[in-house]
Structure formats: C-alpha cells, structure tokens
Specification:
The complex is a heterodimer of chains A (about 425) and B (about 230). Chain A is of the alpha+beta class. Chain A folds into three domains: about 70 residues, no CATH class; about 120 residues, no CATH class; about 170 residues, Histidine kinase-like ATPase, C-terminal domain (Heat Shock Protein 90). Chain A is built from 15 helices and seven strands. In chain A, strands 2-4-5-7-6 form a five-stranded mixed β-sheet. In chain A, strands 1-3 form a two-stranded antiparallel sheet. In chain A, helix 8 crosses helix 14 and helix 9 packs across helix 11. The radius of gyration of chain A is 39 Å and the shape is elongated. About 5% of the residues of chain A have low confidence. Chain B folds into two domains: about 120 residues, Response regulator (Rossmann fold, 3-Layer(aba) Sandwich); about 100 residues, Arc Repressor Mutant, subunit A (Orthogonal Bundle). In chain B, helix 2 packs across helix 3 and helix 6 crosses helix 8. With about 230 residues, chain B is α/β, with parallel strands linked by helices. In chain B, the strands form three sheets. Chain B has a five-stranded parallel β-sheet, with helices on both faces. The chains are: A alpha+beta (about 425), B alpha/beta (about 230). Chains A and B meet through helix 5, helix 6, helix 8, helix 9 and helix 10 of A and helix 1, helix 5, strand 10 and helix 7 of B.
Chain lengths: ~425, ~230
C-alpha cells in the first residue's frame, strides 16, 4: 500500500475537504474578513486534516504491509490456515471485522483438516494392521501348497518304484507316521494312500503312465495356485508401501548397503516367480564393491516392482526373458552435483511406446501395454518413484519400441554422505 | 535328528508347519496353550525354536527375551509384523534370525538349516549317504565303493538336495530355487547342463545310471535306500 493508493481510496473525503475550504473562504469573504484570515483558516484546517490522514495512513500501512508479507511467506505453506494465530491484531474497525471473519473461516477449516487427518490416520493404521493380518493366511496357504506338492511327488515316486513290496512297506510306514499328524490332513492323506495301496496291488507298470499324467496335472494346478498367491502377496505388499509412503513419519533407515547384496536379496525373494517364468538373470555386471545409501527394504521393494514389470511385460512366444542388472559410477553428471552410482535393470520385453514413456510414473497410469494386460494397476512405478523421492534417489525409464531393445530402468544413487549424516 | 519347537497361534499355519518340518526330517513339538509357553518350551528341550510374535495372552518379544536368558538354543522369529522396530527388538532380545510372513517354505527350511548348522556344527559333519553313494559336504566330494570325485558348487548342492529327499522327486523349480538361495541365479538350461555333468561325474566313479533318475515333467530323484 503506497500513498497514492491510499489517497485514491480517500478521494470523497478530499473532495469534501476542498469544498468545505472553499465554503469557509466564501463565508469569511462574505463577513468581510481579509485575505490573511482566510489563508490562516485554510492552513489550519489543511494541517489538521493532513496530519490525521497521515496518522491513519501510517497505521493502516503498518498493518497491511505486515499482513501482506505474512501472506506471501505462507503462500506455499501447508499451515496457511493458521494465519490468524500469527498475524498482528488490528486496532481499527474495518480490519477488525475482516480479522474476525477470517478467524471464523480458518477455524472451521482447521477443524475440518484435523478431522480428516484423524480419519486418514485411523484408516492408515487399520490398513497396516490388515496387511499384517492377511499375511498369516497367505503364509498358511503357501505351506499348504508346499505340503500338497510334496505329497504329489511322493505318491508318484512310490508309484514308480520297481519293487511293489518295497512300495507297500513304504506306504505302511507312511501310514503309521501319518497317523500322528493332525486329523484333518491325516484324513486326506490316508485316503490317498489307501488308493495307492489298491493301485500298487495291481500291476504297477500299467498304471505308470496315467498316474504320471495325473501327478503332472496336479503339479501344474499347484504351481498355478502358488503363482496366483505370489501375485496376491505382491498386491498386499504394494498396499503396505502405499500407506507407508503417504505417512507423515518415515519408517525407513538410510544405511550403507552393498548394491549387489540388495539385488541378490531381491532375486532370492522373487525366485519362485522368476524361475516359473523361466527368466534368465545376469548380475555379473554389478561390481561387488559398489556401496549405496538407502533403506534395504524399500530398495528391495522397488527392485521387486521392476522385476514384476519385466515378467508381466515380457515378449510372448519362445524368446527367453532376460533380465540384466548392471551398475556404473558417474563422477559428475548433470543429475547431481556430486558423483553417483547408477543401477540399470534391463529387460528384453515388449518395451514402452514413446508417448507413454513420460507418464509411466503417474499414479494409475496403465498405458497402451497396460490396457492390453488386465493386471495393470498403474501403481507399481508410481510407488517406486515416490519411495525413491523420499530416499533422495532418482529413477527414470528408457525404452525404444522401434528398435525392440526392451526397457531399461535406471536408479541413481547420489554419493552424498551429508544425507547419510543428517538421517 | 533335530527337534524344532513351534510357537504359533494360527491353527492352520501350525498344522502345515508341523507337516512341512516332519516331511523334511525334523522332529516337531508345539503347544496350544500360551500361558506358560516359556516353561513349556524349556521343558521340551528342542534344538531350535520357531517363534511367532503375535500370540494370545503373551507378547512374543517377551517370550524371546525370557527363553534367551535361560537357554542358548537358536531362535527364529517368524512374524507378519515386519517393520524395522519389531525386527530390531527381536534381534536385540536374542533372536538369531527374523523371517517375515508370508515366506517361501523352501526359504524357511534354508534358514532353519543354516541356523542349525551354525549352532550344532559338530552334529552335521557326517557325510550324506544314499545307496552307498556318500557325499562329503565339507570337502565337496562324492564317493562310491572307495572311488571318489570332486564336485563343483552347483553339483554339490543339487546332489545334496536330491539325497536329502531320498526316494522322492525333487522338481526342477525346487532345485533351481535351492541354487538361487546360494546366489547362483542359473536358468533352466544351466540346470540341465549341471545335472548332466553330475551324471557324468557319478558314472566316472562307477555309480549305476539308474541312481539319478529323470521323472519327465516332474523333476529328478535318486533311488532311495530300501533299508529304512
């Protein structure tokens, strides 16, 4: 607020003053006073009016410029609604009214924000508990399948044993040991073993082929179910990391880790899926002495998402899916002021069309590939990006569908020791 | 034979774990009453404890701490609460290992075997024997009727897993998975090559061809000892 703006606002008063000065002059002239009396009266009035206006201007200016600065500094602040708590209280009536109005409005806004923050926090807590609860049945199902797989292979092995007598000895032995196992499973297995005894009493060789086929079918079924379970597990994991990435407090610990160790850990964790999808993995290009800063669980999750994508978007047909991990040191690149380690995860999959490339990290973006693949949620890479940002890493994707070279995901770890010391 | 005590409150989970461990040659014990779980575990004198953290009436962390005060048996904490805080607490309270649910059963078995190996090294030095073929894990040697041959790391692991599953089929995926757990990320073709090389090595010391069998579409198996 400057003087001219202020004067413009007070134009009616100024005009009224001018008119009243004119009137006083005329009145004094009518009563026959001389020019000096008129001059004296005008000067006195003008001086009084100007000093009153100047005081008023100074008072307003002080208040409004303070407020303006405050508003400017709060512009991008999430606590801007708390402005009435820190602003100076006005001592003139118009501003008082405005202040009261602002106070009431921000108070109701703040109450609302607190309410929703509570609701979100409660929901987040519930979701986290839920994720932990759901993991027990998944683990139980995995164990069930493992035992069923074992059972199928066991049965077939006995079926195929050359000596029928040896087989029945095995079966009897197993029958007795099985009896000690909990009832519900025991019933099932006993039934199967009874069947086996009947079969082994007949000519074993005649049944070899069909039994083998049956076992193959069962194994395929078991493998399919474990595959689906792995996907459920993956989605649950995603939900957990989504809630965590949105949390105000961070539950990650930035530590020094060997890059190769983290890659190995992730590969071990996803071994079932990778083996079932017949992925050929090459990690020989990560030097053993590369050390990066980050949280190992988060990094492992991020790499897991990238691995899942590579499997999901592999080329259909005979071509073997290849996944290559490599790493390089950049002394100084445009990405960071300091040197950094870049991890490349390259696959030979279907690639990402150039028009989708810029948007792959957006929440819920599924793209051309995603629309033809019903399993896409558009959450995986979005979460990777968010977690990377929280840890201060950069992540980007390179892909060229024309040359059909697949997709490369790069994660850049700055060698920023300061960040480590701060956390 | 090692005895493993399972502290787990989920019934389905406990039953399947018992079955899995029994199948893999361990003796198992468990309890359904968790009020005096610490004394129960100690009275059973197991070789290893599998401990769930979320138990009714008592906190798993407390159980871990109390058992560690009175015994040096390996404790593996298996839990669905896999945040850093719980992991740190469990390890500080004396747990040897921390595995998050849901885990791959094979990985659990590998962790159990590793914990047992660390704690009872002297009990495991005996070579694995099956049909007179004996496998020395420490020297990576296979011997048959006095002749012996060196094995590579991969061949050793493959043969060890097959002999441990004596008389049962081991699927190719399981073999691959086992090798992956020792950071050998081999693909399907490499496994075939490794198995063939193992066959050649076995043949060179006079083991008959039908010792290591291929079950089409299912996997491999070694002929079990009939004497058991």
């Amino acid at each position: 607020m400057n003087l001219s703006q202020y004067l413009k606002g007070r134009l009616p008063q100024i005009i009224a003053l001018m008119l009243s000065l004119l009137f006083v002059c005329l009145l004094l002239a009518a009563f026959g006073h001389n020019i000096s009396a008129m001059f004296f009266a005008c000067i006195t009035l003008l001086l009084l009016f100007t000093s009153a206006s100047l005081f008023d201007f100074w008072r307003r200016r002080r208040f409004y410029s303070n407020l303006y600065e405050l508003v400017r500094s709060l512009e991008n602040d999430q606590n801007a609604t708390l402005i009435t708590e820190i602003m100076q209280k006005p001592d003139f009536i118009e501003a008082k009214i405005a202040y009261d109005a602002l106070r009431i409005a921000t108070k109701s806004m703040n109450d609302n924000i607190t309410k929703y923050r509570h609701v979100t926090e409660e929901y987040r807590e519930y979701l986290e508990t839920w994720v932990h609860e759901i993991k027990t049945p998944i683990a139980a199902a995995l164990l069930l399948l493992e035992n069923a797989r074992h059972n199928t292979l066991c049965d077939t092995a006995y079926q195929n044993a050359d000596d029928a007598i040896a087989t029945s000895i095995h079966l009897n032995k197993n029958n007795t040991s099985i009896a000690t196992i909990k009832e519900h499973s025991a019933k099932k297995y006993n039934r199967e073993f009874e069947k086996n005894v009947n079969v082994s009493a007949q000519d074993n060789n005649a049944n070899d082929m069909t039994e083998n086929e049956l076992a193959c079918e069962t194994m395929a079924l078991i493998n399919n179910i474990s595959h689906e379970l792995a996907r459920i597990e993956d989605f649950v994991e995603q939900a957990l990391y989504y809630t965590r990435s949105a949390a105000v407090e961070n539950d990650y610990v930035i530590r020094r880790h060997k890059l190769a160790d983290i890659v190995r850990l992730t590969l071990r964790k996803h071994s079932r899926l990778l083996i079932a999808s017949q992925v050929s993995v090459n990690i020989s290009e990560i030097p053993n002495d590369y050390v990066v800063l980050g949280d190992h669980k988060w990094l492992s999750f991020i790499l897991g998402q990238i691995i899942n994508n590579a499997i999901k978007y592999r080329k259909q047909g005979k071509a073997v899916c290849c996944l290559t991990f490599s790493a390089r040191v950049f002394d100084s690149i445009e990405l960071y002021d300091y040197s950094s380690i870049c991890l490349y995860v390259h696959d030979n999959g279907i690639g990402i069309p150039p028009e989708d490339l810029k948007r792959v990290f957006q929440k819920g973006f599924t793209g051309t590939n995603g629309r033809s693949n019903q399993y896409s949620t558009g959450m995986g890479l979005y979460l990777c990006k968010r977690l990377c940002e929280k840890m201060g890493l950069k992540i980007f994707v390179k892909s060229d569908t024309e040359t059909e070279t697949g997709t490369t995901v790069c994660i850049v770890f700055p060698r920023d020791e300061l960040r480590f010391l701060l956390s | 034979m090692f005895t493993i005590y399972i502290v787990e409150d989920d019934k389905a989970m406990r039953d399947e774990l018992l079955l899995l461990l029994q199948r893999n040659g361990y003796l198992t014990k468990s309890s359904t009453n968790f009020a005096n779980i610490v004394t129960d575990v100690l009275a059973a004198t197991p070789d290893l404890l599998l401990l769930d953290l979320t138990l009714p009436t008592i906190d798993g962390q407390l159980v871990c701490e109390q058992i560690r005060k009175l015994s040096s048996m390996p404790i593996i904490v298996v839990t669905s609460r896999d945040d850093n805080m719980n992991e740190l607490l469990a390890l500080n309270h004396g747990a040897d290992d921390f595995i998050a649910k849901p885990y791959d059963p094979q990985i659990l078995l590998a962790h159990i075997a590793a914990a047992l190996r660390r704690a009872y090294a002297e009990r495991l030095e005996a070579p694995l024997v099956c049909n007179n073929v004996s496998l020395d894990l420490l020297r990576s040697e296979v011997s048959f009727n006095g002749k012996c041959a060196q094995l590579t790391k991969n061949e050793l692991r493959i043969l060890a897993l097959l002999i441990k599953n004596n008389g049962r089929i081991v699927s190719r995926a399981n073999l691959q998975n086992d090798l992956w757990q020792s950071d050998e990320f081999i693909d399907d073709n490499t496994l075939t090559v490794n198995v063939n090389r193992l066959r050649t090595t076995l043949a060179s010391i006079g083991v008959s061809d039908d010792f290591l069998l291929t079950r089409r579409g299912l996997g491999y198996m070694v002929q079990g000892d009939d004497k058991q």
